[in-house]
């Protein structure tokens, strides 16, 4: 596969992944679909890893990769799309950092658990379990408020972990692909070339 086609394919995969991260983070801000508990959200929700890291910081390389997959560079010329590929190299490295940020914060959110009300006290009641609460859903009833906060957080943070892992992989592929594209150019034939 040519570097241009590969870049376009990777970019078209990164864009929906970044939008999934943005939506998942937005949903974490409203446990059980209500805004009444925003004063008691966990730190990992407020760090906006899905919005900033897995979302905006990956959306930029996704768009850059799609543009790098386009034909031509700076109009007509023989640079073989190297300018856009070079921009995609830096963009992919930036996106990889964002995806790593999203993965680390979301992983911590899963391990620590949500902040919830238990026996009249708002705290991270699952922090002492070191993530064991994930396997024992009978513990999920510890939280009195917000209702259903544990499955809500587990589902959305798991989605962020999975999406950010894919983003790291795709940004890494695009980093290598764009570097090859800068050094070697694109292998696609230009229109008007004689075969």
Automatic annotation (TrEMBL):
Q: What is its main location?
A: membrane
Q: What is this protein called?
A: Transmembrane 4 L6 family member 5
Q: Please name the GO terms that the record assigns under molecular function.
A: arginine binding
The GO cellular component terms are: lysosomal membrane; plasma membrane
Q: Which UniProt keywords apply?
A: Membrane, Transmembrane, Transmembrane helix
Transmembrane region positions?
12-31, 43-68, 89-112, 156-180
Where does the record say this protein resides?
A: Membrane
Top-rank taxon of the source lineage equals: Eukaryota
Pfam families associated with the record:
L6_membrane (PF05805)
Membrane topology per the entry is: Multi-pass membrane protein
Q: Which InterPro entries match?
A: L6_membrane
Q: Which GO terms describe its biological process?
A: regulation of G1/S transition of mitotic cell cycle
- So what family is this one in? Belongs to the L6 tetraspanin family.
């Amino acid at each position: 596969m040519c570097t241009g086609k590969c870049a376009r394919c990777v970019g078209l995969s990164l864009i929906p992944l970044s939008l999934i991260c943005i939506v998942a983070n937005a949903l974490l801000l409203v446990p059980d679909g209500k805004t009444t508990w925003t004063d008691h959200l966990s730190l990992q929700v407020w760090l906006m890893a899905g919005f900033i890291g897995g979302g905006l910081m990956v959306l930029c390389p996704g768009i850059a990769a799609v543009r790098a997959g386009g034909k031509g560079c700076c109009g007509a010329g023989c640079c073989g799309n190297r300018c856009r590929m070079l921009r995609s190299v830096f963009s992919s490295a930036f996106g990889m950092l964002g995806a790593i940020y999203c993965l680390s914060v979301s992983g911590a959110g899963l391990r620590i658990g949500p902040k919830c009300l238990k026996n009249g006290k708002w705290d991270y009641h699952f922090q002492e379990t070191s993530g064991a609460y994930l396997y024992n859903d009978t513990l999920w009833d510890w939280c009195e408020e917000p209702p259903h906060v544990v499955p809500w957080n587990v589902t959305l943070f798991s989605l962020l972990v999975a999406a950010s892992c894919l983003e790291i992989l795709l940004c890494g592929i695009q980093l290598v692909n764009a570097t090859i594209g800068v050094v070697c150019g694109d292998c696609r034939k230009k229109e008007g070339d004689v075969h």
